[in-house]
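On clarity, I found the account of how folds are encoded harder to follow than it need be. For illustration, here is how one protein appears when written out as sequence plus C-alpha cells:

:::
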Amino acid sequence: MKKNTKMIFCCQGCGYQTPKWMGKCPDCGRWHTFVEEAQTSKPIQGARLTLSSSQTKPVPIDSIELEDEYRLLTDIREFDRVLGGGLVPGTLVLIGGDPGIGKSTLVLQALDGLATRGHKVLYISGEESIKQIRMRSKRLSAASHDLLVVSEIDIDSILSIIESTMPDVLVIDSIQTMFSPDLSSAPGSVSQVRESAVQLMLMAKKTSIPTLLVGHVTKDGAIAGPRLLEHMVDTVLYFEGDRNHVFRILRAVKNRFGSTNEIGVFEMNEKGLEEVVNPSAVFLSERPVNTPGSVVTSSMEGTRPILVELQALVGSTNFGTPRRTVLGLDQNRVALLVAVMEKKLGMNLMGHDIFMNVAGGVKVDEPAIDMGIVSAIASSFLDKPVSDATLVLGEVGLTGEVRAVSHIETRVNETKKMGFSRCLVPESNLKRMTEVKGIDVIGVKAVSEVIEILF
C-alpha cells in the first residue's frame, strides 16, 4: 500500500469517519453502516478545480451587474412551477424518491419537452443501457432528435462527454452509480457520491448548464449518501406517493430560486406521468355522499389552494388502550385535537378507537385543517353526516378557540369554484376579508359553535 494512503472506516449513512470500526455511528445513530475505505492524501481533481475557478479578488456587491432572469421551460407546468418557474442556468437539482415511483420517467419527459423546444439535452444513465432507455422513451413517446442518451458511470468520461457535446440541459441518473477513478471505494459509497457531486457542481457553475441529479432514498425516506449532497445542490425535490395509488406529488424541500411551498400533482398511467391541472376535483371525485366521518377542508400548497377530503372512523375499542391510526396527517396534532374535544365538547373518546385518513394518498400538514379534523371525528362519533355543500376551515387552540388562517380569500374562492355553498371560517378572518358572492361564509369563534352549526 502506498505511503500516502491510509484506511479509514466511513459511515454510509452520514459520512462520519473513524480510524476504527464501530457498530453504531455516533453521528446518525445507525447500526452496521461503517465500510472500510482508502483515504489518499493526493489532492483530487475537484479541489484543483475549486482553486482555479475561485474569485481571486473580492469586489463590492453593488458593482456586480445583473442580467434578466432567464429560465428554461420543460413544457410540464407542474414541474416548472415547483422549480419556481423553470430551470435556472447553472442550477443543480436533486430529485429523490422511492424505487419505482417515477423519477426516471419524470426527467425523461422533462428532457423531451426541452428537446421539442429546440434545446440540446443529454441524458446520462448509470443504471440502464441505451436500448433500455429507447424502449422506455418509445412508451412515453419521447423520441426527439435533440435528446441525446449515453450509458456511463465514470465521472471523468462523463465530463469529457459533456465538454464535447455542450448540452443545454444535463441529467445524471443516478448520482449513486457514478464513481471517480481517483478513489478506491466502490460506487455508491459516501466518498464516491460526494466526489462525483462536487465535480458535477463545478461543471454546472462553470458552464451554466442546468443539471438534474436523480438520487436514491433510504428506507427512512432520506436521500442516500452524505448530508452534504443536499447542502451542495441548489434545489432538492422529493417525488412522493404510494405505488398502489395513481397519484404522485412532487415537493420542493429546498429551492434557492423559488418557493419551497409549491407542489406538483401527477397521475401515473401507461403513457407515463400526466400532470393534474385541478387536484381538488381529482381528490373529491370519489367522495361519498351523506356519509358520517367525511369532511372537506382546504389546504394551501404554496400559492395554490387544494381541497381535500378528511375521513374519520370512531369505534368502540376491545383493548385497554384505544388505537390512534392516522394516515396523511400529523398523529400528534390529531391526539391534541382529540383531547380538546374531550375537554371542551364533552365527547368521551378515551374508550374509542380513532382512524383518520386523507383521501387520495396526499399528506397534509397545516394548522388550518384543524377544524376539519375535529368535524370529521365528531361526525363519525355522533354518526351524523356533514352537509355535502359545506367546507370547514380554521386552526383550533388548546382552549377550544378557532384561530385565523392565512390566504382566506383564496381558499374561499376555490371553495366557491368547486361548487360548495357554505364555508365555516374563523370569525377573525371574516372581519378582514371582502365579501364573496355566491357562497355563504359563516364566522365561528369556538369549536362548540362549529358542532352546533354542523349537527
Observations:
- The radius of gyration is 26 Å.
- The longest strand covers residues 304-316.
- Residues 43-54 have pLDDT under 50 and may be disordered.
